[in-house]
Design brief:
By secondary structure, this protein is mainly beta. 6% of the residues lie in helices and 61% in strands. It is built from one helix and seven strands. The chain has one helix spanning 87-92, and strands spanning 3-4, 10-16, 20-24, 26-32, 36-41, 44-59, 64-77. Strands 1-2-3-7-6-5-4 form a seven-stranded antiparallel beta sheet, with no helix packed on it. The longest helix is centred in the last third of the chain and has 6 residues, at 87-92. It is globular and about 30 Å long.
């Protein structure tokens, strides 16, 4: 079941094998390189880790992102009101 926030934009992940990923509900891409893509979604910050990662399509108006490459991890960083930063920031900050 897709996640839907108050704005009505649905967040969905669709992974084909480990080579292709479709993400909907994307609000912003914070940073990306061949090993990591960090994006803000309607369900929170999503970190995609892997190798040879490439953004094949990005449509922020429609909130859609396509990723090609070898995907190793999908991690959500929860940022509640009592937290000062995401998981990676707390670990490496």
């Amino acid at each position: 079941m897709p996640y839907e926030d108050m704005s009505g934009m649905q967040h969905r992940l669709e992974l084909e094998g480990r080579e292709r990923l479709l993400v909907t509900g994307v609000e912003e891409v914070e940073r990306f390189d061949e090993e990591e893509i960090v994006m803000n979604t309607t369900a929170g910050t999503l970190v995609v880790g892997g190798s040879g990662l490439h953004i094949g399509k990005l449509n922020l108006d429609g909130g859609e992102l396509h990723v090609d490459g070898t995907i190793h991890t999908l991690l959500y960083e929860d940022q509640g009101p009592s937290q000062s930063g995401g998981l990676l920031r707390r670990l490496f900050g």
